[in-house]
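Propose amino acids for all 468 sites.
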């Protein structure tokens, strides 16, 4: 919102917002905040924290001060994100078929073969229209110079888009006359775009309008609210594993009128739980035989099986090389500088500088498996040192960038808090990106961890039609 201390002043694209907010008293502001919190509670806009003793569900904290992105800045982000998802899909198609990127020495085979979510069972299996990642949530951060960096790609079951939609509705209720005048791009088309993306990958044998469903693990999943929200927004059924069955290699949904054939499944289950006949035999969340139906082309899955290898944090290191290899282009959005603990020189650097680095486990999410060196105790650093020694393949390290901060209302006053941004990218007939995305904010003072499970909250993200 503000320029640097040296420059002083307000960024131009925030001026209209400040003019609107300057008339608000502290009481007005807190009243609007309380109204939104109450509405979220009544509407069930909640999430679950695994292992939390205080309750199963809680409201996702929301801060009224929106993040604003001018048009030229967003145009650059859109181009960079589109470039990235195209390269990632070409990478997945390649490693499950010819593996040219390995044969040409761009990525060592050991990194792919040892990736936790690389599915050997899906080698040489063709997926509809050669698209593996249909829905991607790519996390971005912005440094103190205003440059954006990609922090990671969430290519399995990225969550958060329901909060983007609900946050916008909440802001419209709180400030009903502001959006039109401020020139903010709408986000209402997401559900239609998602449905079109899913329909685009329907099996070629499908006649008429494809039947699309959202497959959820159930009410105890941390993102259950989102699963329900998306199904309702698209006007499709939400199902659990026991609602589906496979007969003659086709997938059917149990309904009050009998069985109904299913063509496309937006699955919010990890690969491991999709089919006990192929993956984990103890899974009761998936559907026996569904993977065979998928292989035979009778049903389509989004995202495809095996996409998890693309959001392995070690594989993330190679995405700029993928862009160069498959598209012959320079990356528009750079990665955060990254060190691989499995590389000899990087390993020495990491071990010598552990208290100054951010260390991440390759396949964790939700802020788990992360150590922020400057904010960690000696015992925590010692614990991670031991884990890296034991399994270097499973760890990367990055410098602690000076993340941008944004004014947020915390403890009855405005203070700067660190933020990141998760845009949601759809890849079907075309690539479409919802303007903005989920701005997550680390509400705890000084914290760099924005995940909801770690005490983070969110803001509405406004992308302007113009630069100012």
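Proposal:
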């Amino acid at each position: 919102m503000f320029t640097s201390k040296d420059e002083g002043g307000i960024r131009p694209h925030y001026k209209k917002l400040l003019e609107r907010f300057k008339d608000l008293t502290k009481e007005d502001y807190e009243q609007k905040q309380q109204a939104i919190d109450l509405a979220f509670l009544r509407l069930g806009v909640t999430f679950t924290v695994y292992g939390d003793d205080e309750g199963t569900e809680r409201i996702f904290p929301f801060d009224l001060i929106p993040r604003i992105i001018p048009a030229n800045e967003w145009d650059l982000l859109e181009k960079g994100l589109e470039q990235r998802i195209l390269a990632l899909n070409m990478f997945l198609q390649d490693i499950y078929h010819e593996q040219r990127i390995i044969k040409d020495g761009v990525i060592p085979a050991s990194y792919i073969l040892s990736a936790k979510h690389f599915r050997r069972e899906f080698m040489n299996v063709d997926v509809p229209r050669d698209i593996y990642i249909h829905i991607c949530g790519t996390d971005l951060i912005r440094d103190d110079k205003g440059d954006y960096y990609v922090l990671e790609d969430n290519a399995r079951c990225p969550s958060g888009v329901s909060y983007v939609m609900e946050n916008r509705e909440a802001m419209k209720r709180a400030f009903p006359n502001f959006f039109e005048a401020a020139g903010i791009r709408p986000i209402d088309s997401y559900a239609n775009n998602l449905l079109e993306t899913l329909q685009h990958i329907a099996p070629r044998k499908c006649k008429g309008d494809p039947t699309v469903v959202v497959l959820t693990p159930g009410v105890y999943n941390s993102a259950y609210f989102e699963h329900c929200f998306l199904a309702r927004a698209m006007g499709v059924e939400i199902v659990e594993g026991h609602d589906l069955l496979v007969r003659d290699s086709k997938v059917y949904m149990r309904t009050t009128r009998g069985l109904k054939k299913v063509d496309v499944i937006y699955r919010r289950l990890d690969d491991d739980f999709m089919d006990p006949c192929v993956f984990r035999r103890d899974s009761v969340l998936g559907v026996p035989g569904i993977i065979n139906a998928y292989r035979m082309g009778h049903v389509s899955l989004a995202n495809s099986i095996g996409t998890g290898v693309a959001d392995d944090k070690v594989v993330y290191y190679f995405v700029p090389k993928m862009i160069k290899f498959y598209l012959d282009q320079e990356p528009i959005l750079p990665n955060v500088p990254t060190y691989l603990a499995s590389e000899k020189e990087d390993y020495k650097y990491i071990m010598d500088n552990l208290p100054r680095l951010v260390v991440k486990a390759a396949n964790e999410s939700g802020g788990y498996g992360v150590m922020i060196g400057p904010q960690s105790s000696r015992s925590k650093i010692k614990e991670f040192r031991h884990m890296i020694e034991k399994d270097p393949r499973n760890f990367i390290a990055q410098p602690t960038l000076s993340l941008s901060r944004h004014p947020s209302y915390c403890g009855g006053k405005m203070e700067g808090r660190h933020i990141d941004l998760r845009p949601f990218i759809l890849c079907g007939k075309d690539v479409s990106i919802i303007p903005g995305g989920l701005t997550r904010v680390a509400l705890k003072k000084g914290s760099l961890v924005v995940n909801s499970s770690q005490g983070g909250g969110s803001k509405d993200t406004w992308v302007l039609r113009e630069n100012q």
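Residues 152 and 316 are 7 Å apart (CA to CA). The chain has a mean pLDDT of 90.
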